[in-house]
Amino acid sequence: MSQGSKFDLLYFPIPGRALTSQLLLSAAGADWKNSVPEWPKDKEAMPYGRLPVLIETEEDGSKFVLSESRAIEEYIAATFGLLPQGIKNLAVSNQYVNQIFDIVEAYANVAGFKYETSLVLGADIDGLTKTPDECKDRDQFYIAQNIVKLSKFLADSSKYFLQKHEQILAKSKSGYYFGDSITYADLTLYSIYFSLKSENLAAEFDSPNYPHVNKLIQLVASNPAVAAVINK
């Protein structure tokens, strides 16, 4: 990367799997923008037929194109010094991010099922808006029941993660995972919290049982670069 690189992050008009990359670019003070491809028309033009995609244009006009959310995040974090120092700390950071992604995948299962069902049957069907007991139609009952099942797995995954990471963050003097400033792991945790909160799925995170996790979330939320992305 040259000093004059510009970044174009291609994704749908929602935070989704691009949010952590957006937060990283903003925290780094990079010259970047969001672009929304025409979907599915532009699908075949993408490196692997899916989003997000990062396009970096250097001062000489050369381009570097990268797909897959985790690869994009790790590239941005490494490029702009948003990873902890030392090979052992880097390994631990990767460990934390992998553990956070257990929640990301559980959340994606809930959100994905709701979204795909709404595309086929509509967003206002009983299965998506009512509890299983309130659904009189059998098919709607099974839709609602599956959402309950997926949501419970998400809640259980969140609880297990939070119990472990509360202990980790309790040892931090600054409130961050590493040192006294934001790194990739901090932004990844905040990103999934924000996504869960937007879908009313963050009850376990908001529990008073995890004061040090909540402290980290508040530290990240109060960062002006993060707020610039969240409040846009």
From TrEMBL:
Pfam family, one: GST_C_3
Organism superkingdom: Eukaryota
GST C-terminal domain mapped to chain residues: 86-232
GO molecular-function terms, A-Z: glutathione transferase activity
PROSITE patterns for the chain: GST_CTER (PS50405), GST_NTER (PS50404)
UniProt KW keywords: Transferase
GO BP term (any one): glutathione metabolic process
Residue span(s) of domain GST N-terminal: 5-84
Name of the protein in its database record: Glutathione S-transferase 4
Organism: Smittium culicis
